[in-house]
Amino acid sequence: MLRDSFGRVATDLRVSLTDKCNLRCTYCMPPEGLDWLPKAQLLTADEIVRLVRIGVERLGVTEVRYTGGEPLLRRELVDIVARTTALDPRPQVLLTTNGIGLARLAEPLAQAGLDRVNVSLDTLDPATFKQLAHRDRHADVIAGLAAADAAGLRPVKVNAVLMRGVNDHEAVPLLRFCLERGYELRFIEQMPLDAQHGWTREGMITADEILERLSAAFDLTPDDLEQRGSAPAERFLVGGGPARVGVIGSVTRPFCGACDRVRLTADGQVRNCLFATEESDLKTAMRAGASDDDLAARWVAAVARKRAGHGIDDPSFLQPSRPMSAIGG
Ligand code: SAM
After folding, report:
1. What atom in ligand 1 is closest to the CA of residue 193?
2. Which of 21, 59, 232, 235 has its CA 20 to 30 A from that of 225?
3. What is the pTM of this model?
4. What kind and span of H or E run contains 51?
């Protein structure tokens, strides 16, 4: 098992399939993009599936989420998903995507056994989308969402990050849009993970502010407080339910004490926290001929070192040197 020294057990594996992205969301990377990892450093599809298999068969991983960068840019994605859903025991297999290309890929992904998707959508306005993501692709995201729903990847979850003065007036319209279509919306507080180091506490729209805005238009009641478990989102019934909305207060309401996540970067590094400053290099060990036992032991040791919390509020907090796109969100 992947148990840390505080007794938390990691069962939720997030795998970045590429650090590349076709959007340039301001909270993530600069408009000119980043220096992408050289191809030789990326794990191959076989290497990814081998590490995921070790996680699932030997280390108790029950949920595998493919992310990035933008995972739909990875050509072998459908094959990787099919090979993951064929593992025994079969993990839940999920995808976090910006939705561009999902109109074409939702059906093949569903056929490969993908269970669900989270699609990022921060605005309903194409002009704001272009300002925020530096690309004119709003219509592709909307089409991707509809295709995911039509392919049965339900409930389709939508992730939104609000930024002051940019899209923070859209909390209510975004929720309305999702309620009308049966999508489950989750707002995520903006975290200090952008490559430009432009995050400020004042610029962040907090969970309290989000809830205040939503409460002005909707009747919200806390849902499943006892059953929240390791889920990052605090969920609320809208209008008595069954529709729900989630708020992920990563910064102001951290859930580190219940965290069950571990990450594998596109270049084969295990990270025990989004905000970790250390990584454990499974790729080099694997390419040097390490056995499954050896890789599993390195992985166990990497998780054992996990810190109690992300420490954003500590005076000594250091933003990780890799941005969210390279870590795998
Ligand atoms: N490209 C995919 C996408 O857009 O969903 C997957 C990777 S992206 C890094 C995963 C999620 O992280 C997205 O929902 C994105 O909005 C969120 N994200 C990126 N940078 C963030 C930040 N600084 N704070 C909070 N969420 C962030």
Report:
1. 23
2. 59
3. 0.96
4. helix 45-58
